[in-house]
Amino acid sequence: MAITSGVGPHAAWLNVNGTWPIEHGNVAQSADRKTSSFSGEIPMGLPGARAAFASLSAGTDATITVMTRGQTATLMTGEIDEVNFDYIRREIHFRGRDKSGALHENVTSEKWINKLPSDVVRELTGRVGLSGNISSSSVKAGKQLQQDFVKLSENNTFAQIIHEMARIDGVRWWVDPNGTFHYVPYGSQQGTYSISINQEVEPISADCIELHVSHNLQAARPIAVTVKGWHSKKRQIFQYKSNVEGSGPTRTYNYQVPTLTQDHATKRAKSEATEKARHEFIVSATVVGDPSVQAGMGLQLSGTDFDQVYDIDEVHHDFGMSGHRTHITARSPKSGRSAS
């Protein structure tokens, strides 16, 4: 849960070719099918710093570690993409990405026969040394040609293919601070982080610095998604209409996707409807620096008009010699709104 004890002793380090205290840094964790990133500055005058960073090469592991109120934790594991030497201000600036960066750099043209999307994801992540929590798919990847389902890629990055598989399955993917890959359905949070506010007292009491809840009334409308496709081999049209309850006039979406089977049409329609509904509520919160909160967790609100659990999509840590703050962005539809 959010820290209630306020500020406390704090420090942060970059571990690459040695251990270096960070003057100011940022870690941006994302669980919304994006690569997470980090950046920061260290004093150039630290003994050995210039030589250590001047000799860096691509592929060298780097970690960001913080110590906040006696709690030491890793905020990100990845590699540095760029180093900038500011010889006047006497600072070394760095930026990099988490372990999923390799998924954007590798391109492939190949085909998978009778594979589940999760099989394709597991194979591609394994090629770049990633493994972890990959939920099994329920339909085959690709189109049905004769008796086989065939998924083709043509000059696509691994990340593009995984993104396409995630849209079919209705899941989100990310790499956590320890380098573990996750591919799980929306609503399958990896732990829960709590924020509470008491508005019945004066002044109000809260364990956060800032808290905003945005209610998107358009995303709260009833949603109807129809996916339809002509299957040339079966000479038949397959379609499915997925509905999400809401208030107001219905928002209607129609998709034409060729060579679908009935299972694929059903899965695709439900996945599209789920993605559209989850933008109903956006929660933005800032808490005293807390390394225990991570993208991919659930955010439990208490004491607001919108108390429920939300999917945490993004966590930004701002830290350094001036202190540590954590910014959280979470999204979800109103509890009970789900695709049928």
Task: Explain the overall architecture.
The protein is mainly beta and 340 residues long. The chain has four domains: 10-98, Roll (Phage tail proteins - horseshoe like beta roll fold); 103-185, Baseplate protein-like domains (Phage tail protein beta-alpha-beta fold), CATH 3.55.50.10; 192-217 and 280-332, Beta Barrel (Elongation Factor Tu (Ef-tu), domain 3), CATH 2.40.30.150; 223-276. It has five helices and 23 strands. The strands form four sheets. Strands 1, 2, 3, 4, 5, 6, 7, 14, 15, 16, 20, 21, 22 and 23 form a 14-stranded mixed beta sheet that branches. The protein has a three-stranded antiparallel beta sheet with strand order 8-11-10. Helix 3 (117-127) packs antiparallel against helix 4. It is flat. The two termini are 33 Å apart. The relative contact order is 0.16. The model has no long low-confidence stretch (mean pLDDT 91).
